[in-house]
Amino acid sequence: MSYDWIIDLLFWVAVVFLVAVYVSWRATRLDRLHVRVETARAALDAALVRRAAVALELAASRLLDPATSLVLATAAHEARTADSEGREFAESDLSRALRAVVDQPGFAAALDGRADGAAVLDEVGAAASKVVYARNFYNDAVASARDARRKWLIRALPLAGRAPLPGFFEIDDDPPRL
After folding, report:
1. Beta strands in 7-162 (DSSP E)
2. Which of 17, 66, 93, 119 is the 20 to 30 A CA-CA neighbour of 125?
3. pLDDT of 99-122, one tens digit each?
4. What's the DSSP call for residue 169?
5. d(CA 154, CA 32)
6. pTM, rounded to two decimals
7. How far is CA 137 from CA 44, 47, 131, 132, 134, in A?
8. C-alpha R_g of the chain
9. Domain limits of the chain?
Protein backbone atom coordinates (compact mmCIF):
# COMPACT_ATOMS: atom_id res chain seq x y z
CA MET A 1 0.00 0.00 0.00
CA SER A 2 1.43 3.33 -1.07
CA TYR A 3 1.27 6.43 1.07
CA ASP A 4 2.55 8.90 -1.54
CA TRP A 5 -0.66 10.87 -1.33
CA ILE A 6 0.02 11.54 2.35
CA ILE A 7 3.44 12.97 1.51
CA ASP A 8 1.89 15.12 -1.23
CA LEU A 9 -0.80 16.31 1.16
CA LEU A 10 1.75 17.18 3.85
CA PHE A 11 3.83 19.05 1.27
CA TRP A 12 0.88 21.19 0.16
CA VAL A 13 -0.22 21.81 3.73
CA ALA A 14 3.30 23.01 4.51
CA VAL A 15 3.32 25.27 1.44
CA VAL A 16 -0.05 26.79 2.35
CA PHE A 17 1.10 27.24 5.94
CA LEU A 18 4.30 29.03 4.87
CA VAL A 19 2.41 31.30 2.45
CA ALA A 20 -0.09 32.15 5.21
CA VAL A 21 2.74 32.94 7.63
CA TYR A 22 4.41 35.19 5.03
CA VAL A 23 1.16 37.04 4.21
CA SER A 24 0.48 37.49 7.92
CA TRP A 25 4.00 38.81 8.47
CA ARG A 26 3.60 41.33 5.63
CA ALA A 27 0.20 42.48 6.96
CA THR A 28 1.64 42.89 10.45
CA ARG A 29 4.59 44.85 9.11
CA LEU A 30 2.28 47.13 7.16
CA ASP A 31 0.15 47.66 10.26
CA ARG A 32 3.27 48.54 12.29
CA LEU A 33 4.30 51.04 9.61
CA HIS A 34 0.88 52.69 9.76
CA VAL A 35 1.12 52.88 13.55
CA ARG A 36 4.58 54.42 13.16
CA VAL A 37 3.13 57.04 10.78
CA GLU A 38 0.36 57.89 13.26
CA THR A 39 2.81 58.14 16.14
CA ALA A 40 5.18 60.32 14.13
CA ARG A 41 2.24 62.51 13.11
CA ALA A 42 1.24 62.97 16.75
CA ALA A 43 4.83 63.93 17.62
CA LEU A 44 4.92 66.36 14.69
CA ASP A 45 1.62 67.93 15.75
CA ALA A 46 2.94 68.32 19.30
CA ALA A 47 6.13 69.97 18.04
CA LEU A 48 4.15 72.34 15.81
CA VAL A 49 1.80 73.29 18.66
CA ARG A 50 4.80 73.88 20.94
CA ARG A 51 6.48 76.09 18.35
CA ALA A 52 3.29 78.13 17.93
CA ALA A 53 3.00 78.49 21.71
CA VAL A 54 6.59 79.68 21.97
CA ALA A 55 6.01 82.12 19.11
CA LEU A 56 2.99 83.50 20.96
CA GLU A 57 5.11 83.78 24.09
CA LEU A 58 7.73 85.73 22.14
CA ALA A 59 5.04 87.98 20.68
CA ALA A 60 3.65 88.69 24.17
CA SER A 61 7.07 89.15 25.80
CA ARG A 62 7.39 92.86 24.97
CA LEU A 63 10.77 92.16 23.45
CA LEU A 64 9.43 93.13 20.02
CA ASP A 65 7.84 96.26 18.66
CA PRO A 66 4.02 96.17 18.54
CA ALA A 67 3.76 95.68 14.77
CA THR A 68 6.19 92.75 14.77
CA SER A 69 4.43 91.24 17.78
CA LEU A 70 1.12 91.45 15.96
CA VAL A 71 2.48 89.82 12.80
CA LEU A 72 4.09 87.00 14.81
CA ALA A 73 1.01 86.46 16.99
CA THR A 74 -1.24 86.36 13.91
CA ALA A 75 1.00 83.80 12.19
CA ALA A 76 1.11 81.66 15.35
CA HIS A 77 -2.65 81.84 15.78
CA GLU A 78 -3.23 80.89 12.13
CA ALA A 79 -0.87 77.93 12.52
CA ARG A 80 -2.71 76.69 15.61
CA THR A 81 -6.20 77.05 14.14
CA ALA A 82 -5.59 75.99 10.55
CA ASP A 83 -7.58 73.09 9.15
CA SER A 84 -5.84 70.04 7.70
CA GLU A 85 -5.76 71.46 4.17
CA GLY A 86 -4.28 74.82 5.14
CA ARG A 87 -1.97 73.58 7.88
CA GLU A 88 1.16 73.32 5.76
CA PHE A 89 0.76 76.88 4.46
CA ALA A 90 0.05 78.28 7.92
CA GLU A 91 3.06 76.52 9.42
CA SER A 92 5.28 77.78 6.60
CA ASP A 93 4.01 81.31 7.26
CA LEU A 94 4.92 80.91 10.93
CA SER A 95 8.43 79.76 9.98
CA ARG A 96 8.89 82.79 7.76
CA ALA A 97 7.51 85.12 10.46
CA LEU A 98 9.94 83.71 13.06
CA ARG A 99 12.86 84.16 10.69
CA ALA A 100 11.75 87.70 9.85
CA VAL A 101 11.61 88.58 13.55
CA VAL A 102 15.05 87.21 14.31
CA ASP A 103 16.60 88.68 11.15
CA GLN A 104 15.47 92.22 11.96
CA PRO A 105 18.33 94.72 12.14
CA GLY A 106 19.23 95.39 15.75
CA PHE A 107 17.18 92.49 17.11
CA ALA A 108 20.10 90.77 18.80
CA ALA A 109 21.40 94.08 20.16
CA ALA A 110 18.01 94.84 21.71
CA LEU A 111 18.16 91.59 23.67
CA ASP A 112 21.65 92.11 25.09
CA GLY A 113 21.58 92.06 28.86
CA ARG A 114 17.99 90.82 29.09
CA ALA A 115 17.81 87.38 30.69
CA ASP A 116 14.16 86.92 29.73
CA GLY A 117 15.02 87.60 26.08
CA ALA A 118 17.73 84.95 26.02
CA ALA A 119 15.41 82.40 27.63
CA VAL A 120 12.62 83.04 25.13
CA LEU A 121 15.05 82.86 22.22
CA ASP A 122 16.44 79.57 23.51
CA GLU A 123 12.90 78.20 23.63
CA VAL A 124 12.20 79.44 20.09
CA GLY A 125 15.36 77.77 18.82
CA ALA A 126 14.62 74.49 20.60
CA ALA A 127 11.01 74.41 19.41
CA ALA A 128 12.03 75.17 15.82
CA SER A 129 14.67 72.42 15.90
CA LYS A 130 12.15 69.90 17.23
CA VAL A 131 9.81 70.72 14.35
CA VAL A 132 12.58 69.99 11.86
CA TYR A 133 13.36 66.63 13.49
CA ALA A 134 9.71 65.66 13.91
CA ARG A 135 8.92 66.48 10.28
CA ASN A 136 11.90 64.44 9.08
CA PHE A 137 10.83 61.46 11.20
CA TYR A 138 7.26 61.75 9.97
CA ASN A 139 8.23 62.00 6.31
CA ASP A 140 10.59 59.01 6.70
CA ALA A 141 7.75 56.97 8.22
CA VAL A 142 5.43 58.00 5.38
CA ALA A 143 8.03 57.01 2.79
CA SER A 144 8.44 53.58 4.41
CA ALA A 145 4.68 53.00 4.53
CA ARG A 146 4.21 54.11 0.93
CA ASP A 147 7.06 51.85 -0.22
CA ALA A 148 5.51 48.90 1.58
CA ARG A 149 2.10 49.62 0.06
CA ARG A 150 3.58 49.57 -3.44
CA LYS A 151 4.55 45.90 -3.11
CA TRP A 152 2.71 43.46 -5.35
CA LEU A 153 1.41 41.29 -2.53
CA ILE A 154 -0.01 44.25 -0.59
CA ARG A 155 -1.92 45.42 -3.67
CA ALA A 156 -3.03 41.93 -4.82
CA LEU A 157 -4.40 41.02 -1.40
CA PRO A 158 -5.66 44.36 -0.11
CA LEU A 159 -3.68 44.10 3.10
CA ALA A 160 -3.83 47.85 3.72
CA GLY A 161 -7.56 47.58 4.14
CA ARG A 162 -9.25 50.95 4.05
CA ALA A 163 -6.36 52.84 5.59
CA PRO A 164 -5.73 56.01 3.62
CA LEU A 165 -2.40 56.40 1.87
CA PRO A 166 -0.35 58.64 4.17
CA GLY A 167 0.84 61.93 2.73
CA PHE A 168 4.04 63.83 3.28
CA PHE A 169 4.07 67.02 5.38
CA GLU A 170 6.01 69.65 3.46
CA ILE A 171 6.61 73.00 5.09
CA ASP A 172 9.27 75.66 5.10
CA ASP A 173 10.83 74.67 8.41
CA ASP A 174 14.21 76.33 8.22
CA PRO A 175 14.82 77.40 11.80
CA PRO A 176 15.59 81.03 12.60
CA ARG A 177 19.28 81.83 12.91
CA LEU A 178 19.62 82.64 16.58
Report:
1. none
2. 66
3. 998 888 777 667 666 767 778 888
4. -
5. 14
6. 0.85
7. 8, 12, 10, 9, 5
8. 25
9. 4-156
